[in-house]
Design brief:
4 helices; mainly alpha; globular; 81 residues
Length: 81
């Protein structure tokens, strides 16, 4: 089981988040993987995250949508560390 799957399981089982919330986290992390390109999540650096944010903003997403994705990413990396 990879780190993302472990995190999603943690959210569902230990934090008891709703299935809809867990699905939103899964979409956000999947989007991060797409934005990261060839790099694994473990190899991402600050510049990569900043680049992903720029790409999100380029998609004309609302600031609240970008903030939600950042929150999902932050939670994952906190869990992974």
């Amino acid at each position: 089981m990879n780190a993302v799957d472990q995190y999603l399981q943690h959210l569902a089982a230990e934090r008891r988040l709703s299935p809809h919330t867990v699905a939103a986290y899964q979409r956000d992390l999947s989007n991060l993987c797409k934005l990261a390109g060839d790099k694994s999540l473990a190899d991402l650096e600050i510049a990569d995250i900043r680049g992903a944010i720029v790409k999100l903003r380029g998609q004309s997403l609302a600031a609240s949508s970008v903030a939600r994705q950042l929150s999902s990413w932050r939670g994952f990396f906190t869990f992974a560390c």
